[in-house]
Amino acid sequence: MLRRLFIVFLVLITCITGSGKVLHAAQAAARVFPIYDSWSGFNSRYAGIPPCFIVKSLAEFDTFWQAHGVNEMMPNVNFGKTMLFVWCPGPGRFDYRPMKIERFFRDASGQLVILMGLDRQKSGGNMRNSYLIALLPRLPGNIAVMRVGDKLSGEADCMPLYTLWDMSGEAPKNAPVTVLKVPPKPKKPVNVAVAGGAPAEKPASGTAVAATAGAGKSGGAHAKGAGTPSTASGTASSGDANTASCEADPFKDAFNLDL
User: Fold this and answer.
1) Cα(74)–Cα(70) distance, rounded to whole angstroms?
2) What DSSP designation does 193 have?
3) Which end of the chain has fewer beta carbons closer than 10 Å to its terminal beta carbon, N or C?
4) What is the mean pLDDT of residues 99-122?
5) What mean pLDDT comes out for the span 32-52?
6) Are the beta carbons of 210 and 203 closer than 8 angstroms?
7) CA–CA gap between residue 175 and residue 250 (Å, rounded)
């Protein structure tokens, strides 16, 4: 019997220390922010809709405090530099002990995370309305709310609860920016008519197409290399001094260039 108790004790110690090492490693790899102050209790009158939110203005805080309905003075908060995290799930027959924020940090991907320590316990049949209000540094961006997982129940180190979307329009610093570039439209080929045959396809780059004016004998115009415009050469024929051709036009004035 004592041996079994000793083995169970070793397993518990291993789970607790192992969880602490994992959380400590995650904390060391991220940027941790301070938690300035917090208030908690079990006597809120807030309905719990929504159960979790961020307060960044005095007007929002005053609206919540009126619904909160506790007989306490509203704390003085500088919303220019700080913000409030409110967790109040509404009335129920459960207590939460512990009920605190373990850490407020930014993980390696840039996501803000609030890690809560919560343990729900039965209240003995009495109605409770637990709440937790924490004063945090004002930071823009979405916030993932998680709780510390129960290792004995086989849970992960961090269990997700909520995602608080930042709709204030404040841009987070050093946030990755994705730029989409629209690819240029491909140029359509242009058909150019070539004498004595089917229409040829003109290259999209604008390369000149050279047509030979004289066929069958040397001395006519010819293309000098790829992409080089042809140059007409030779002596004007006796038939027409204004025709740049060595021979009579075989195409019957189709390409007769009058100067």
Assistant:
1) 9
2) -
3) N
4) 89
5) 94
6) no
7) 72
User: C-alpha angle 130/157/42, rounded to 5°?
Assistant: 5
Confidence band for 248, pLDDT divided at 50, 70 and 90: low
Token pair for 226: 């790829």
Which positions ≥6 away from 63 have C-beta within 8 Å?
A: none
Q: Is the pLDDT at 99 greater than 50, yes or no?
A: yes
Report the C-alpha gap between 179 and 176 in whole angstroms: 10
Q: Where are the domains of the chain?
A: 26-164, 205-259
pLDDT score of 214 more than 60: no
pTM of the model: 0.57
d(CA 55, CA 61): 6
Query: What percent of the chain is helix, strand and coil (3-state, nearest 5)?
Result: 15, 30, 55
Structure tokens, 165: 């979307």
Tell me phi and psi for residue 21, to 5 degrees: -65, -40
| Sign for the pseudo-dihedral over CA of 27, 32, 36, 39 | negative
Nearest residue to 22 (alpha-carbon basis) of 162, 161, 156: 156
CA 41, CA 192: separation in Å to the nearest integer? 85
143 falls in which pLDDT band (50, 70, 90)?
Answer: very high
pLDDT at 133 over 70: yes
